[in-house]
User: Fold these one by one.
Assistant:
Number 1:
Amino acid sequence: MSQPTNVGLRSWIGYRGGSGYLLWLLHRATGLGVLMFLALHIVDIFLLGFGEDVFNKLLFLYRAPWARAMEVFLLFGVTFHAMNGLRIIIQDAFPRTWLHQRRLVAVEVVLFLAVFLPVAWIMVADFLGGAG
């Protein structure tokens, strides 16, 4: 009698490893998020070709509360993607650094938090304060 294999959806999307897998997954997700943001801006700049009035009517979307909150997520995506990308470049350029991957990830997280948290705080404070 053969053993059942683990081929269901749960095994396909399930957690498979340590921090490397989570970083890989987050790097891909933030890359797609930034790509979607760029696509949105290409479309809204394209609308400028139909006249300034059409473009200006679309700008109300960017002033909506949900859009301002999404700016913080965009900051997260761009900052994480850049920091993680730099770590990957360093590890690819200097193969011996793979021996110190945990330390490099720790440095990446500290640098990411040092950049993201103060800027996110300013953005959220501005949003909650009603300035802008």
Number 2:
Amino acid sequence: MTAVTTNPAPGAPPTAPPTAAAAAAARLAQIKSALADGTWPPSARPSKPHPAAPVPGVAPSVAPGPAAVLNPRPIPVPSPPTPPTPATSPPAGAVSPPSTEDRTAAAPALFLSAVAAARSEVGETMPLRPTSAPRPVRSRAAEAPAPPQAAAPPLVVAAAVASAGSSSTARTAVLEPVEVLVDEPTASDTTVQLAPQPPPAEPYLADRFPGPSQTLSAIEARAVSAWFGKHKVLEQVSLTMPPGQVTALIGPSGCGKSTFLRILNRMHELISGAALAGAVLLDGSDIYDRGHKIQDARKDIGMVFQRPNPFPAMSIYDNVLAGLKLTGRKAGRDTRDHIVERSLTSAGLWGEVKDRLRQPGGSLSGGQQQRLCIARALAVKPKVLLMDEPCSALDPTSTRVIEETMIELQREVTIVIVTHNMQQAQRVSQQCAFFLAAQGSPGVIIEHGDTDAVFNFPRDQRTLDYVTGRFG
């Protein structure tokens, strides 16, 4: 650092040289004054000796004021580059003073350069803060953090410092890099916008009911023929009804659908003069075998008829338990209560009658009576449930409830239903068989298989005509 000298007044006691901070402050004040009166920068005009410097033949002057006056040294600062000189400009070497507008426009930049040079002269560094980018707008959406930026290299400012009576020497002021603070999204001010989740899909009706409590059974008819006296009503009917599914029997009236259904649980033999041939297999065992009891067959294969037939004098509670009494099964009070609740729940009736179980079964509506008959059939835990047009005498609302009950029950029992409603067959069944009897001929199965295939892609033209309503 270059020493700073002062000119003491005559007769005044010698004083200590000013500190570096005071010298820098005084120098800055002089630079501001020079900028104000247009005498800065000194490189733009001929050099003049400082008034405080000794001039030959002139006595040194002492300005009033403080005892010590700084002896400033001019600090040449490079001027900004000028545009190319036009052809009419003065010859090279001539110095033209800058205009007032140029000095005014360049004053801020020149002032900053002068401040840097002055601080460099007194041995201080100039901690300039680089101009940072505009503050980013915080986004509420989560974004991947930007990769870390490489550290900015130190800024170097070169200033030529000229000492009085000595040649100019180049000094360098190293400006420390300043960290630019940029807002980064944090966990506290970032909200992750998740796509709205759709509401959970409503489960199918069959999924609302608990799993089967027993092994599901299949029932199969093999070459079944039936007669009423000498009149043959069925001819060599063979059909397999898969376990855990609803099989719909469709066809016009008089083709033998209900007769076939009664044969499946040995009710056909109760009619005087009735006869049959063939076999009905439940889990591979022929229910018409001489060693198979008729009570066991009807317990394993329940039946619900076209018209509701509850016992009108019995209470709802006793109607459900009637099947247990007929089969000779005994149970305690708690067991009976459990059977009643389970059966009515499976039939979709528990919520409607749980507070009036001691009322007569005949006091219920038609749809409720039909569901009571279903609960009575379910009380003995059948393997197969036969339903002969169970909704033909019911209103649409009760029909919908019975259909929902069938869809739920198919996870617990194998269901075979006779219906004249084509839409109902499509809604509730997985398998379908089309019965048809020509004039004066016994009924036969024209086509059977998957319900969708039978209704949408029938193999027989007669099936297509019937499901599309051309006859029947």
